[in-house]
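Structure in, sequence out. Go:
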């Protein structure tokens, strides 16, 4: 089980550069085991090209390395805070993906302009005000500003945090967040150029799409 989770975390970390979500060594994916006493996370400062499965670091809930030779990501404390305060989540991703970070840099949440946004996030993706990275500042801010059911928070002037039940869902949300941010930015620009109005969905309409996507009708049954 441990080995499987470690593989999942390794593959998910590689999926960040593959999907254009990170620059250099920034960005990290983690996951917590079922017993909620061990977290696997990317090591600090290792390039994605050189990252090997055995480099993924296992830590306990106090942040002590219990498996692996390398130091854990410098963002470990934020991941730990989220696992301790959000018992329903199983995986956390942090990136500075460009379009989502651009919204965060101007301190703007992302309204629900498209069905793809409504499907995955269900509501406006909130933007927390800027905080520094000391102690629990980032973790506290994410927990404070998150919206029930929405698996992402933009961090003012910084980047994004994504938190989901599973690694697969977290990666999907990280990819879709960047897609939604890019499409929203392009649509806002086009609306300005073409003098068209761009209005967000009502809460009710957004929820309709979200419920359909999360209600078991989407995707293939019996597919592993
Ligand atoms: Zn960061």
């Amino acid at each position: 089980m441990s080995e499987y989770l470690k593989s999942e975390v390794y593959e998910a970390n590689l999926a960040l550069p593959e999907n254009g979500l990170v620059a250099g060594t920034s960005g990290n994916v983690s996951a917590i085991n079922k017993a909620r006493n061990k977290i696997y996370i990317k090591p600090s400062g290792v390039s994605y090209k050189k990252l090997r499965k055995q480099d993924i670091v296992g830590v306990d809930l106090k942040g002590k390395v219990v498996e692996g030779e390398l130091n854990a990501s410098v963002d470990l404390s934020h991941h730990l805070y989220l696992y301790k305060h959000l018992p329903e989540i199983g995986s956390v991703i942090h990136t500075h993906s460009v379009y989502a970070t651009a919204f965060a840099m101007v301190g703007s949440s992302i309204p629900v302009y498209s069905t793809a946004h409504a499907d995955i996030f269900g509501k406006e993706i909130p933007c927390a005000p800027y905080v520094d990275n000391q102690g629990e500042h980032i973790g506290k801010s994410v927990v404070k500003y998150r919206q029930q059911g929405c698996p992402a928070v933009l961090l003012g002037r910084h980047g994004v945090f994504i938190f989901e039940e599973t690694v697969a869902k977290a990666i999907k949300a990280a990819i879709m967040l960047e897609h939604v941010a890019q499409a929203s930015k392009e649509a806002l620009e086009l609306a300005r150029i073409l003098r068209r109005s761009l209005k967000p969905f009502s809460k009710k309409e957004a929820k309709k799409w979200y419920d359909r996507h999360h209600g078991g009708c989407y995707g293939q049954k019996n597919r592993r």
